[in-house]
Amino acid sequence: KAGVTQTPRYLIKTRGQQVTLSCSPISGHRSVSWYQQTPGQGLQFLFEYFSETQRNKGNFPGRFSGRQFSNSRSEMNVSTLELGDSALYLCASSLGKWRIGSDTQYFGPGTRLTVL
Amino acid sequence: KNQVEQSPQSLIILEGKNCTLQCNYTVSPFSNLRWYKQDTGRGPVSLTIMTFSENTKSNGRYTATLDADTKQSSLHITASQLSDSASYICVVSCPRNTSGTYKYIFGTGTRLKVLA
């Protein structure tokens, strides 16, 4: 069974630009979550999509947005990039069971975004 | 304030030795606690998930314990191997007041190095 894939793996952008990252979940998984990881802040939760609807959201500004397609693939968009957006962006998929305790998340390798 | 603190920040042990990593949290209300292993340059891998009613859970040589009264968790690694060298992240999730949503509070991780 193929794992979670993320594209691209590496990306370099300049301030003010926008970027779109893509995530393909494990087949059969309906939930996709996005995380930002930086050396200073560690892992932070961005949002979660389930059946094309955002059902959970972290504390990030509106410049960070996402969507999920009918095949469960998800995209994350960051507009008006800032230097502080440089980070590893991780996507995780899960079956999406409502009982949080039983839902194991499987992470992709991440997209390393550098903003110059 | 909801916080998750992990100790030690870093740890060096010899191959074959056991070690214990700590996670203390002040999160309330509590839904579940997860331990992840993250190899350098890769996404985190789930080791264990525990709800408040579970005191211990094992995954091979990894055993997590949870004391919901003192709000402490530990991850014990038995007979360490070189491949155990990684960062170990503790994550606590708690339900929000709004129906069905929850938030994740991440620890900053413990970096473990196993030497031959």
Give a quick summary of the entry.
The complex is a heterodimer of chains A (about 120) and B (about 120). Chain A has about 120 residues and is mostly beta strands. Chain A has strands at about 5, 10-15, 20-25, 30-40, 40-50, 55, 65-70, 75-80, 85-95, 105, 110-115.
Keywords:
A: mainly beta, seven-stranded mixed beta sheet, four-stranded antiparallel beta sheet, 11 strands, globular, B: six-stranded mixed beta sheet, five-stranded antiparallel beta sheet, elongated
The residue-averaged pLDDT of chain A reads 92
Strand content of chain A: over 45%
Q: How large is the count of helical segments of chain A?
A: 0
The most extensive interface, with participating residues per chain, is: A-B, 23 and 23 residues
How many β-strands of chain A, per DSSP?
11
What's the end-to-end separation of chain B, in Å?
41 Å
Helix content range of the residues of chain A, please? under 10%
Oligomer: heterodimer
Note the main sheet of chain A: 7 strands, mixed
Q: With helices defined by DSSP (H or I, 4 residues minimum), what is the helix count of chain B?
A: 0
Low-confidence stretches of chain A: none
Helix-strand category of chain B: mainly beta
Q: Helix-strand pattern of chain B, N to C?
A: EEEEEEEEEEE
Identify the overall geometry of chain B.
Answer: elongated
Distance between the termini of chain A: 37 Å
Overall pLDDT confidence of chain B = 92
